[in-house]
Write a structure and sequence with these properties.
The complex is a heterodimer of chains A (404) and B (537).
Chain A: H1 4-8, H2 22-28, E1 33-37, E2 40-45, H3 49-58, E3 61-64, E4 69-74, H4 78-85, E5 98-104, E6 110-120, E7 123-128, H5 133-139, E8 146-149, E9 155-160, H6 164-170, E10 184-189, E11 192-197, E12 206-211, H7 216-228, E13 235-236, H8 239-248, H9 292-299, E14 305-312, E15 322-324, E16 331-341, E17 346-354, E18 364-372, E19 375-385
Parallel strand pairs in A: 3-13
Antiparallel strand pairs in A: 1-2, 3-9, 4-7, 4-8, 5-6, 6-7, 9-12, 10-11, 11-12, 14-17, 14-19, 15-16, 15-18, 16-17, 18-19
Chain B: E1 3-9, H1 13-24, E2 29-32, E3 44-48, E4 51-54, H2 65-70, E5 80-82, E6 86-89, E7 95-98, H3 102-112, H4 114-135, H5 150-163, H6 168-179, H7 182-187, H8 193-200, H9 216-224, E8 227-228, E9 231-232, E10 236-238, H10 243-255, E11 259-261, E12 266-272, E13 275-281, E14 286-294, H11 298-304, H12 313-320, E15 328-335, E16 354-356, H13 361-372, E17 381-385, E18 400-407, H14 419-434, H15 440-443, E19 444-450, H16 452-459, E20 495-497, H17 511-523
Helix pairs in contact in B: 1-10, 1-17, 3-4, 11-12
The chains are: A alpha+beta (404), B alpha/beta (537).
């Protein structure tokens, strides 16, 4: 007979899995607006979007990051494996440092993006948006490398916002002020181990805290204890507010802003790093990485399309809008994601735009449908390309962080 | 004597579909059926009082929604309810459940192999590529690749265009896919034995091939290319059993002025001067028509109801060698209550879907070995469903009907089939289910046991082959049923074919019937009443 553990490990009632923080998340959720993130029950909104957005931009926000896919990569060939996997050269990534990466299939189409944590000499953690175990194992053929999915074995919290350092310091983490962006530090809190990285998806000052699931609630309580003591405001944020700030910060979302290669059915619907604005990651000086030949070939030709950051004139949401090369001109693309930016008072968007002969269109116009009291209207809005992130604040990278 | 515009031989779902579109174009159409009831293999019959069986076909996915819409089948009583999930029970007391909830399914795959859970993303996307390509051809007449007629050239160009809309690597993969065995294909994705066995099942259903036989990968696609309300690959129950499909089409046909005669078996298609003139029934009655359409399989059409002297020798040769091997059996069981499956947790939704009991590729291949030796599989692959969990019309409240499709069962056994051997075949199937359900045997009130012999005798499907001809590359697209005859036109003038022996093949799809109607209406210079494909989804 199958082992009891194997049989007990499965519950069909649990459609969405509870994260190790769930008891607190559930308690904090006022509107019970849930969604699935990699199969976990995740809050879209806890209270209101506005209050959560401003927690990130003006005080301190907390988000359960556990559902993010995590893989532990170790063994003698770990670095060789990773450096062959990703388009960026990571050979100089020092222990206790983190870097942003993307990886492709042989056709040079992006499978996913993510971060590599050099946990200790020779041992890495790869974090990704989508499930990658199959591809990682395929890519590791013939290498002496151990790849273990540890999504469920590591609980993680993102603590982000201008007072994030102050809050965590007050919570008992006293080694943060010297931690530089993309740095990792290890510390003990009430006797259990916490790994802290200065990373995030908000474009603001922020940290990600990594613990064993058994210590998840104790970690949560330590952070929110700061609020209970009346020192700083600390608020939970859902994926709704995160979507607003990540667009402001110019971060892309695989699966939303572009179709990932493994899930693409229709030829031509996948994207290369150059086409999604990640050309800066591609390092052709590396002797080999998956997709290099295809990307070299593509690099020598005029670019066909690109994911661009657009500021859209006015305040009407360009949901699913078509884009044209002039008002009522030729159709050249679509909006992939968009937000109203409360801090910039502007409509911001990510858009997939066709280039002609490798040249960006001189003008981009969005045709926007919007409704007022169930009456639909149409309008045109001029779009301006933003090369830099829409919003970048010096506090994101200041070390030590300013007290505020 | 009355002369009809068209006679359709056989009131199966394709014959009725064909007739309905002809009637919709204003033709005076008569459908002739040998049995006293309509439906052919798309039938629900009450063989035990209070219980209705889907005697042959038992689930629905391939039926074209375009036809459903065009013939207004919803208002004529058809309702297809999506069924939920599927299970393979393991011999060690565990099981694999492919739940209808994607997140639960993913975790369940991961319980057997974390890697397979991720590989299933790649598998689903790859299968969808081939589904998307092939779905676009279901409601089109295949081109004749040897013809230089403008229409054939254009249609062949369309086919090539769709093919070359694939990327370079997809083209390589697609060609491999069509020639591979399902076992080898799946092994490029999955590592868990039970998951390999679970996903292989759809590739052997109805076919005289084993999981390691080249060509079985395509059969999986044939079972995955349908959809319910846009969910590609999803299957459902027709409320009231599969007879509801035929009944709804017949109702639509009659509302369009059509006429159906049952207990009217055609003996021969009357041909004069290389032109079909009508039919003669076994009763001796002659009925004339401008057009005669055969919904019988290709063998039965050309070797059964046509005079050899009316046919070209080469065609007879093709018909004689048409691959239409019987390999499937069927049990329909009236149950006094709901069987329990102790391996499943209490309240598990998995009984709502397909249940299988073969957990390795090796057992699947051994089941095939028995068939090759003219024995029914001692350890068969079964596709078991209990539709009465959803459908209140097929059994009294609290009672249940179980449909058990069985692979493999041979057309001939040593010494010939007898009633006792048929019952022994049924007992082998019941024993396998009973190994996983202790109260199952006590609940059995009545069982209809059907070997290919019974299926052929009742429905007329040669050898009881459920697809009206094997779904192998040599018998698909412009090769179906034979090269040069894939455009629904017969070898004599005014004679047509609309059965599953024609493109796009078997399954309760309706597409052959509709495609044939389009060609007939074209030849008659009538308005095309058949629907166009909904297009890329």
């Amino acid at each position: 007979m199958a082992s009891q553990q194997q049989l007990a490990g499965h519950d069909f009632h649990e459609v969405l899995k509870a994260s190790p923080f769930h008891a607190r998340v559930e308690e904090q959720s006022l509107v019970k607006n849930w969604m699935s993130w990699n199969g976990y029950q995740t809050a879209r909104v806890y209270d209101t979007l506005a209050s959560e957005y401003f927690a990130i931009r003006s005080s301190c926000s907390v988000m359960d990051l556990t559902p993010m896919e995590k893989y532990r990569i170790s063994g003698p060939d770990a670095l060789t494996f990773l450096n062959r996997l990703v388009v960026r050269d990571i050979s100089a990534l020092k222990p206790h440092r983190v870097t942003y990466v993307a990886w492709c299939n042989d056709e040079g189409k992006v499978l996913d993006d993510g971060t590599i944590f050099h946990l200790e000499p020779g041992t890495y953690r790869l974090c990704s948006q989508h499930h990658q175990l199959d591809w990682l194992l395929i890519s590791s053929l013939g290498m002496n490398v151990l790849i273990e999915e540890e999504t469920h074995e590591v609980a993680a919290l993102a603590v982000q916002g201008p007072t994030a350092c102050s809050v965590l310091t007050a919570a008992g983490f006293d080694t943060l002020s010297q931690l530089k962006p993309f740095g990792i530090t290890h510390t003990l809190l009430n006797g259990f181990e916490v790994m802290i990285s200065r990373t995030g998806y908000t474009g603001d000052l922020g940290y990600e805290l990594w613990v064993a699931p058994a210590n998840a609630l104790a970690l949560w309580d330590a952070v929110f204890g700061v609020k209970q003591r009346g020192l700083y405001d600390v608020r939970c944020i859902g994926l709704g507010a995160l979507e607003m700030v990540r667009i402001e910060a110019g971060f892309i979302m695989p699966g939303d802003d572009f179709n990932t290669a493994e899930t693409t059915v229709r030829a031509g619907h996948d994207r290369s790093p150059f086409e999604i604005g990640l050309g800066w990651l591609v390092d052709f000086d590396k002797p080999h990485f998956t997709g290099k030949q295809a990307l070299l070939k593509e690099h020598g030709q005029p670019i066909k399309r690109r994911l661009l950051k657009l500021a859209v004139e006015g305040n009407k949401a360009p949901a699913d809008s078509f884009l044209y090369d002039g008002k009522r001109g030729r159709r050249i693309g679509t909006i992939k994601s968009h937000t109203w930016s409360p801090i910039l008072k502007a409509t911001l968007a990510m858009a997939d735009i066709e280039y002609r002969n490798g040249v960006v269109p001189a003008q981009i116009w969005a045709e926007i449908y919007y409704q007022k009291e169930l009456e639909w209207r149409a309008t045109w809005a001029r779009c301006t390309i933003s090369k830099a992130p829409f919003w970048a604040h010096p506090r994101r990278s200041a070390t030590p962080p300013q007290r505020c | 004597m009355k002369k009809y515009d068209a006679i359709v031989i056989g009131a199966g779902h394709n014959g009725l579909t064909n007739a309905a579109f002809l009637a919709k174009a204003g033709l005076d159409v008569l459908v002739l059926e040998k049995n006293e009831y309509i439906g052919g293999a798309t039938v629900s019959r009450e063989l035990y009082e209070g219980w209705k069986y889907s005697n042959c076909s038992y689930v629905c996915s391939l039926f074209r929604p375009e036809i459903y819409q065009a013939l207004d089948l919803g208002r004529h009583g058809l309702e297809v309810v999506p069924l939920q999930g599927s299970t393979t029970f393991k011999q060690n007391g565990d099981y694999f459940g492919s739940y209808h909830q994607p997140t639960v399914r993913r975790r369940e795959i991961a319980r057997h192999s974390k890697r397979d859970a991720d590989a299933s993303v790649r598998f689903d996307a790859d299968l969808m590529k081939w589904c998307r390509l092939i779905r676009g051809f279901l409601l089109r007449t295949p081109p004749d690749p040897s013809s230089l007629k403008m229409r054939d050239v254009m249609e062949f160009a369309h086919l090539l265009k769709q093919f070359y809309s694939l990327s370079e690597s997809q083209i390589y993969e697609f060609i491999r896919f069509f020639t591979m065995s399902i076992a080898e294909y799946l092994e490029e994705y999955f590592e868990s034995d039970v998951i390999l066995a679970h996903f292989s099942g759809g590739s052997i259903i109805g076919t005289g091939l084993g999981v390691y036989s080249p060509g079985t990968a395509y059969v999986l696609l044939h079972h995955a290319m349908g959809d319910i309300d846009g969910n590609v690959g999803s299957w459902g129950f027709a409320r009231g059993g599969m007879g509801s499909v035929a009944n709804a089409i017949a109702s639509s046909f009659k509302a369009l002025g059509g006429e159906v005669r049952t207990a009217a078996e055609v003996q021969q298609i009357i041909v004069k001067g290389r032109t079909a003139m009508g039919v003669v029934l076994t009763s001796g009655e002659e009925i004339s028509a401008r057009v005669v359409v055969s919904n019988l399989d290709a063998k039965r059409t050309f070797l059964g109801v046509m005079d050899r002297n009316d046919l070209p020798e080469a065609l007879l040769h093709r018909a004689e060698h048409f691959k239409i091997r019987g390999s499937s059996g069927k049990l329909n069981i009236a149950l006094d209550g709901m069987p329990v499956f102790p391996a499943l947790p209490p309240g598990s939704p998995l009984t709502l879907g397909h249940m299988h009991f073969t957990d390795t590729l090796e057992r699947l291949e051994r089941a095939y070995d028995d068939w090759k030796d003219d024995r029914w599989s001692a350890d068969p692959y079964v596709d078991t469903l209990i539709p009465t969990q959803y459908d209140p019309t097929m059994a009294p409240p609290g009672k249940h009907m179980m449909s058990v499709f069985v692979q493999y069962c041979p057309v001939e056994v040593e010494g010939g089939w007898t009633a006792a051997k048929r019952d022994a075949f049924g007992a082998a199937v019941i024993d396998q289910i009973a190994q996983h359900s202790p109260n199952f045997k006590q609940l059995i009130l009545h069982a209809e046991v059907r070997t290919p012999r019974e299926i052929e005798a009742e429905t007329g499907l040669t050898q009881g082959n459920i697809f009206q001809g094997e779904l192998t590359l040599d018998q698909l697209m412009f090769n179906r049923p034979f090269p040069g005859y894939a455009q629904y036109r017969g070898p004599v003038k005014n004679m047509y074919m609309c059965s599953s022996s024609t493109h796009p093949g078997g399954g309760v799809m309706g597409a052959p019937g509709a495609n044939a109607a389009r060609e007939i209406l074209r030849d008659l210079g009538r308005t095309d009443t058949t629907p166009r494909d909904f297009g890329d989804d």
